[in-house]
Each structure stands twice: as C-alpha cells, then as structure tokens.
Amino acid sequence: MKRLACALAFATLLPAAHAVEYTQVQPDKSAINFVYKQMGVTVDGKFRKFSSQLKFDPAKPTAAKASFDVELASVDTGAAEGDEEVAGKAWFNTKAFPTAQFVSTSVKALGGNKVEVAGRLTIKGKTQDVVVPVTFTAQGNTAVFDGAFTIRRADFTIGEGAWAKFDIVANDVQIKFRITASTK
Amino acid sequence: MATQHYTSTAKALHWLMAILIFGLLALGFYMHDLPLSPDKLKLYSWHKWAGVSAFLLLGFRLLWRFTHRPPALPESMPKLMQFAAHAGHLALYALMLAIPLSGWLMSSAKGFQTVWFGVLPIPDLLEKNKEVGDLLQTVHMSLNLLFVAVLVGHIGAALKHHFIDKDDILIRMAPRHSKEK
Fold first, then answer.
1. Distance in angstroms (rounded) separating the CA atoms of residues B100 and B97
2. Record: contact B115-A40, CB cut-off 8 A
3. B37–A78 C-beta distance less than 8 A
4. Helix (H) or strand (E) holding A23
5. Which of A134, B15, B35, B111 is a plausible cystine mate for A78, CB 3.0–4.6 Å?
6. Are A81 and B41 a contacting pair at CB < 8 A?
C-alpha cells in the first residue's frame, strides 16, 4: 500500500517524465483483414472478433509486447457459403482449433515510427515464426498501429483436400491489420 | 427498296450469341446450387468471363443493328403480331443488356471483382455491400427467369412462322440461307 501510494505520488509529480504506454485495444476501431487471390482476382475478407493484449511505449518500442487471439469462426469472406466452408474441417477446422494466436517474441526499432515485430503465429495447431513490419501513429492518448504480412496457407494446412492446390485459391494470404489502442 | 435478308454478320452475331446465351443460362442455373468447391469457383469465373463476352458482343451487335436495317416483317402478318414481334425483340435486347449489367454489379457488391479471362479487370462500379449484393442477386435471377420466358416466346414464334405460317422468318436467319441479290 505504501509502495502504491509512493508510485502514485511519483506519477503525479512527474507526469512528463512518465512515458505513455498504450495498452487498451479498442475493438471498434481495430480491424484484422486478409487479402488473397482467387483465380488471379484479389479478394478480401476480415475477422469480426478478436481479442488482444498490448503494451507499447513509443519511447521504448523494443520493450513492446503484443498478443492476439482471433476467433476464426468470425471470418467474413463476403459470402455466407464461404464463411461456412472456411470454418469447416478442410480450412480452419474451428471446432478443433477455434482461435488463431499471435504472440510477439521481440520488437526491433526501425527508426521513425516503424518497428518490426517478430512473433509466433499459431493456426490449426501449427506454429510459424513471422516478422511483421508495423507503422505506428501515436497522438495523445491514442495510438494507431498499421501493418501487413504474408503467410502461406499451406504452412498451416488451411485448405485441404480439393483446396490444397493453389490454382483456384492462392497459397499466399496477406494479413492486414489496423489496431487502435489508448492509454489507461 | 426494303432489304430481304440479314447480313451474314447479323446472322453470325445472332447465332454466336444464341450459343453463348444458352451456355450462360445453363451454367448459371446449374452452378448457383452447387456446394462450394474449387470447381464451383472456376465455373463462376467462366460464367463471368462469358457474360462479359456476351455483353461486348451485344455492343457490337447493337452498333451493327443501327447501321444495317434488318429485313421487314412479311406483310401478311397482322399489325398486332408485327407489334408483338417488335416488342419481343426489344425485350430481348433490353434483357441482353440488363442481365450482364446486373451480374457485373452483383459481383462488385459482393466483393468479387470480374477480371475478364483472369487478365482484364472490369472496374467495380459498386462498393462491397452485402445487402446490395443480395438484392442484385435477386435482380439477376429474376431477369434471367424473365429472359427464359421471352426466349421461349422467341423460339416458339420462329417455329410457328416456319411450320404454321410457312413463311421465311426462320429460314432467313439460317446461316446458309443467302439470297443476296
């Protein structure tokens, strides 16, 4: 209790020196989309539900941490039959693997407002290392993080059986996101 | 002097589009009920490519139609029948125009851009919007049902002219028939 009071006093006394830390992700101002090619035609979709934990201090970007849990059944492919198909066994198999998870392992500062987040992405029981370039815009108590990276669906056995070939649905899937977070 | 025959270009366009339209109708009615599969997506793409082709052919056909007067209807035809024939042809042209347009707009609204033969992207005229997409799907479907009805009338009329009225209405559209004078 004494320590807390002390910390509080410290925080109030030195507000300028106390770095801002963005931790509260605002789901209504955040989005996770995906872009892929279907017979050479660019098609996009999104995930409606995901939760995330974030700790980001623009002054100390390398100390940042981020983790995401994406509810795969909330996929929106643009067509009801597509949503149903992709939730099914050949694709995400959401019954057995309801969420996709990303956990950051390290963050590299690239200068300016750019960072590179390395982490582990787990989908359908398969884990891959991914590197995600992120651009952030921190303004007052809100920060916006934009980034995109490409995965290969075959690495996660997303799309099995008849879908395993890439002639109709390409292997590369770009994940694009915009995360808005505020300070506490 | 009134022309007695169609130009061979007009005939070629008529029959080429007839084949294309029957293929498109059959494919459209067949594919929309299929369970989702790679083949279904392939068929949808083919349908869209063929639809764009039909639309472009229609453009050329309209141009040809406006610059080349078709032969007149037989004078033996009652005025009311002549009117019905013209109205029927107008309906066919209107549907040949409206159906690919509705399909194109539906694709845009559903977020699946049409790329002709996978090469030439057709611009999306509408933003992705589920409700608009579903509405246009109903429009596309209804127009096609109407099209089938008008086509049945068109073919029925041609057969009636040939077998009952015994005039040259059907024959003058036949590919080999040329009474070029």
1. 6
2. yes
3. no
4. strand A22-25
5. B111
6. no
> Do the Cβ atoms of A160 and A90 come closer than 8 Å?
yes
Q: How far is B39 from chain A (nearest CA, A)?
A: 8
> Has residue A26 been placed in a domain?
yes
The two beta strands, A31-38 and A50-55, are: unpaired
Is A44 part of a structural domain of the chain? yes
* Residues B8-173, CATH architecture: Up-down Bundle (1.20)
pLDDT tens for residues A46-76? 999 999 999 999 999 999 999 999 999 999 9
Q: Which of A38, A79, A85 sits opposite B110 (nearest CB)?
A: A79
Cβ partners under 8 Å of residue B138, min gap 6? none
Residue A6 located in a structural domain: no
Distance from CA of B162 to the nearest CA of A (A): 46
Report pTM: 0.84
Name the token pair of B113: 């851009």
Confidence of residue B118 (pLDDT cuts 50, 70, 90): confident
* Number of structural domains found in chain A: 1
Tell me whether residues B38 and A40 touch, CB distance under 8 A: no
Burial of B138 (0-12, 13-18, 19+ CB in 10 A): exposed
Residue type, A74: S
